[in-house]
From TrEMBL:
The keyword Disulfide bond does not apply. The chain crosses the membrane at residues 131-151. Its main location: membrane. This is Glycosyltransferase 8 domain-containing protein 1. GO terms for molecular function: UDP-glycosyltransferase activity. It holds the Pfam family Glyco_transf_8. It comes from the Eukaryota. GO terms for cellular component: membrane. InterPro entries: Glyco_trans_8, Glycosyltrans_8_dom-fam, Nucleotide-diphossugar_trans. PANTHER family: GLYCOSYLTRANSFERASE 8 DOMAIN-CONTAINING PROTEIN, GLYCOSYLTRANSFERASE 8 DOMAIN-CONTAINING PROTEIN 1. The keyword Membrane applies. It is found in: Membrane. The gene is GLT8D1. It comes from Bos taurus (Bovine).
Length: 496
């Protein structure tokens, strides 16, 4: 390199160990030149003088034929001056090879007042590592928090199931939370309403839901219990009508829950309807609620559901029903039903197990088609377990009356809640509208009722029933056409 070069002298290339130990190094002059080159390269690279002459780098036998040999000083220079910088980075540490010291010792010093590049790089690497570790720890912590939260939610549900009946098979299928929550007396209060909806009675459930949401400003959430094949039909019906803004859950009822607990009774003349037993499993249907309302699908609500929800329950009572002996229900007499208003109409008092309960046969019965449940008390008393116990015993021993006055679900409830239930206002369950096709009540009384109940064989969507015009006011036609009013088909066929 010319000394006049404007860039300045460039450091000489550092020879490799293979260059120094080349087997056919040509001459002593070349060896000496190589030593000088090695020394100059080391000084240029490390900005420090190399002690000793270049010839001191060569061993005694390096001037003869054969491969060159390095002295201990040369080996020290090669080790400290050439290899180390390759390990730690060029020009990062100033090294002074102490040629001539025993064993080729090497002293390493750091330039004064200068933070070396290796220190900065190491700091950066450490900083990056720390940042990565912090991010990883935060990600793991967030994952564990989410997992813990989900586990607690699942554990809560499982605790409710196990503490009550240990039953699985009631699975939520859908949830629409987009409807605005309504303020109740300055507070947001959720009112769970449970309704069973079978495929052949789906129009009844739609009318009931429509009447409830239209007559209240409360924050109602509907728990619609149905069988697996009905969920899609129900969802499409709700989404295409003015009910698409309601808040609801569709819950699939697993019929396996009833295995060994119910049996067909030829005397009843109709098959078992699994969904009628959904009311027995309220704490599982509504796992996080403290209170809930259950009602059948053959009702129309004309009052504010909040009033029914606020029905006071006595301490220790898990439910409130409407007594069959109240003045409203007593106005109607059902032919062939026998003792329709007391326990003997539902239970076989000839059976020893029934007599052991010491329940008076003349005790007034109640209607389980509409009731308010204290789910906290229900869970505490394991009501579901008790109901299942009597269902199984009836299968084994036949404890129900042969002239059953009402639904097959009533006898277990009568036993479990004997003298252990509160009452609701009779106007919140004006029933027997389905007992006959004739009108049993005056139009004024029907208009004043808070809830109309078409219990009996004559349903308002059937061929004939009383006050079908009141029910049809709340009915929403099925957009899929799968469900239709039977009487309309009859009217159309008669006009042809």
């Amino acid at each position: 390199m010319s000394p006049t070069d404007p860039v300045g002298p460039r450091p000489l290339p550092v020879p490799s160990l293979g260059d120094l130990c080349f087997r056919s190094w040509p001459s002593a002059g070349a060896l000496s030149a190589g030593a000088e080159m090695l020394t100059a390269a080391a000084e240029s690279r490390h900005h420090a003088p190399v002690k000793g002459s270049p010839s001191a780098l060569l061993g005694a036998g390096s001037r003869g034929p054969g491969p060159p040999k390095l002295s201990s000083a040369g080996r020290a220079l090669l080790k400290c001056g050439l290899r180390a910088p390759r390990l730690h980075g060029d020009g990062l540490l100033a090294r002074t090879p102490a040629v001539g010291l025993p064993g080729g010792a090497c002293s390493v010093r750091r330039p004064r007042g200068l933070k070396t590049n290796i220190y900065i790089r190491q700091k950066r690497k450490m900083s990056f590592r720390k940042v990565n570790i912090v991010i990883l720890v935060l990600a793991v912590a967030l994952f564990l928090l989410v997992l813990h939260h989900n586990f607690l939610g699942l554990s809560s549900l499982l605790r409710n199931e196990v503490s009550d009946s240990g039953i699985v098979g009631l699975q939520p299928v859908d949830f629409i939370p987009n409807a605005p929550q309504r303020v109740v007396d300055g507070r947001e209060e959720e009112i769970p309403v449970v309704i069973a909806a079978s495929e052949d009675r789906l129009g009844g459930a739609i009318a009931a839901i429509n009447s409830i949401q239209h007559n209240t400003r409360s924050n109602v959430i509907f728990y619609i219990v149905t069988l697996n094949g009905t969920a899609d039909h129900l969802r499409s019906w709700l989404s295409s009508s003015n009910l698409k803004r309601i808040r609801y859950k569709i819950v699939n009822f697993d019929t396996k829950l009833l295995e060994g607990k119910v049996k067909e009774d030829p005397d009843q003349g109709e098959s078992i309807k699994p969904l009628t037993f959904a009311r027995f499993y309220l704490p599982i249907l509504v796992p996080r609620a403290k209170k809930a309302i259950y009602m059948d699908d053959d009702v129309i609500v004309q009052g504010d559901i909040l009033a029914l929800y606020n029905t006071p329950l006595k301490p220790g009572h898990a439910a409130a029903f409407s007594e069959d002996c109240d003045s409203t229900s007593a106005k109607v007499v059902i032919r062939g039903a026998g003792n329709q208003y007391n326990y003997i109409g539902y239970l076989d008092y000839k059976k020893e197990r029934i007599r052991e309960l010491s329940m008076k046969a003349s005790t007034c019965s109640f209607n389980p088609g509409v009731f308010v449940a204290n789910l906290t008390e229900w869970r505490r008393q394991n009501i579901t377990n008790q109901l299942e116990k009597w269902m199984k015993l009836n299968v084994e021993e036949g404890l129900y009356s042969r002239t059953l006055a009402g639904s097959i679900t009533t006898p277990p409830l009568l036993i479990v809640f004997y003298q252990q239930h509160s009452t609701i206002d009779p106007m919140w369950n004006v029933r027997h509208l389905g007992s006959s096709a004739g009108k049993r009540y005056s139009p004024q009384f029907v208009k004043a009722a808070k809830l109309l109940h078409w219990n009996g064989h004559f349903k308002p969507w059937g061929r004939t029933a009383s006050y079908t015009d009141v029910w049809e006011k709340w009915y929403i036609p099925d957009p899929t056409g799968k469900f239709s009013l039977i009487r309309r088909h009859v009217e159309i066929s008669n006009t042809k």
